[in-house]
Amino acid sequence: MTPDAIERGTKWLASADLRPTRQRVQLAALLVGDGQNRHVTAESLFAASVESCEKVSLATVYNTLKAFCDAGLMREVVVDGSKSYFDTRTDEHPHFYWEENGALEDASADGLRIASLPELPEGAELSRIDVVIRLRKA
């Protein structure tokens, strides 16, 4: 892992006042170290950490991703109710989900219009709307 990647990861953690533990810095560097946004699963981030020779357990990866989401550094995108992706881009935006290979990618919000919503149950407030557009090759 490059010193630049570690520095970016450390600054990313500091932006959310998260304590920079060794594991958090390592995972943050893998997530944002190159300055690009990405979508990962816990399993894919764990595999990347193994490839980079970083010693982090899968349970630590899950716990760290949850902490990053709780701190507002990432957003969880649930696909099929059973598969979660974690997105380093935290603004409101839709996603394309490719059914054949399970890839998740950002979609443009241009042209997306949500004209109305059903009436919310009493005592509820809207938290957010997730739009996942499922695709398969024609």
TrEMBL record:
Keyword NADP: no
One annotated Gene Ontology cellular component of this protein: cytoplasm
Keyword Transcription regulation: yes
Major subcellular location class: cytoplasm
Domain of life: Bacteria
Alphabetical list of Pfam families matching this protein: FUR
Family in the record: Belongs to the Fur family.
Subunit record text: Homodimer.
Protein name (record): Ferric uptake regulation protein
Organism per entry: Actibacterium atlanticum
